[in-house]
Design brief:
Blueprint lengths: L1 H15 L9 H14 L5 H5 L3 E6 L5 E7 L8 E5 L7 H16 L8 E5 L4 H5 L22 H11 L17 H13 L3 E6 L4 E5 L10 E2 L2 E2 L10 H8 L4 E5 L9 H22 L2
Parallel strand pairs: 3-4, 3-5, 5-9
Antiparallel strand pairs: 1-2, 2-4, 6-9, 7-8
The protein binds zinc ion (ZN).
């Protein structure tokens, strides 16, 4: 009975989370940007307000989940979905995604040939918590809440045995039980990205999950070198890469609070574009 109720709740969010892709009211956007840039000082409020963000979903506490869409002028060479701030306390993971939005707007270069959807802050309630928290407002680690194979058997067992019930890693009562993960799941299934790029901190590596055949993992993006961590029950890499067969590149920046140096950030962008150029044209239909 409880399970049925939870399932219907999850279905409700899946249905309602994707509504609304109209530009936000100016006051609404200013408030959202004030709240975000107050916590992430590396992001200027003016950059946030002019980033072309559109509210596409809402968090548990009713905050907007914003998305920047960049569409190519010519035929698209592929679809790229970028996600920052799945974990609300990894501030650099959001800061770098705001920079990429600015780059796409100002000087996209080769990136202009792809259709991008960019979500700078997936977990706005976690970011707004004092102090910012990894989990969402209901204490769920969104990066353990995706419907991976054997979630029901593995997610809670892993949480209990391997993490000793770490409250920062609670996978939630059911996969997609949270509006943030439910909406991102819906977005993946409808946008059908050729590549997902997800940003975290602070492990200082580049991770890759994907089907064994096809796209080659990148060796490095700037100072981040490939080191495959493996997958967890309910993680985005597990869901996207293994279940859906969409390559997922995960950047783990070296610090959650301090950004890499300017030249390193520039090299990350260049290496990412080079890797997309080599791989996306092959896979895009
Ligand atoms: Zn993380």
């Amino acid at each position: 009975m409880i399970r049925a109720r939870l399932l219907s709740l999850s279905a409700f969010f899946a249905l309602h989370a994707s509504v609304g892709a109209a530009p936000p009211a100016a006051d609404d956007l200013t408030r959202w940007c004030d709240e975000v840039t107050h916590v992430i000082p590396q992001v200027k409020a003016s950059l946030c307000v002019s980033a072309g963000l559109v509210p596409w979903a809402k968090s548990v506490q009713g905050r907007h989940i914003m998305l920047h869409e960049f569409t190519p002028k010519q035929r698209s060479m592929g679809r790229v979905l970028v996600i920052g701030g799945i974990h609300g306390d990894e501030l650099t993971s959001m800061s770098i995604v705001f920079r990429w939005i600015d780059q796409l707007k100002q000087a996209p270069g080769e990136a202009a040939q792809y259709h991008w959807r960019v979500i700078p802050v997936l977990n706005p309630d976690g970011l707004a918590a004092k102090p910012p928290s990894r989990v969402n407002a209901r204490g769920v680690d969104l990066n353990r809440n995706f419907p991976t194979a054997y979630w029901a058997e593995e997610a809670h067992r892993y949480w209990t045995v391997a993490t000793n019930r770490d409250p920062r890693r609670f996978p939630g009562p059911l996969p997609r039980s949270e509006p943030e993960s439910s909406w991102l799941h819906h977005e993946i299934m409808t946008f059908k990205p050729d590549v997902i790029i997800s940003v975290h901190a602070p492990y200082n590596i580049l991770d890759f999950d994907g089907p064994p055949e096809g796209i080659k993992p990148p060796a490095r993006f700037g100072p981040l070198k490939l080191y495959r961590l493996g997958v967890y029950p309910g993680s985005l890499g597990n869901f996207g890469g293994l279940k859906e067969g969409i390559p997922v590149v995960t950047l783990e920046l070296p610090h959650a609070l301090d950004m890499p140096k300017e030249d390193e950030l520039a090299q990350v962008w260049r290496d990412m574009q080079e890797w997309l150029r080599r791989n996306l044209a092959l896979s895009a239909k």
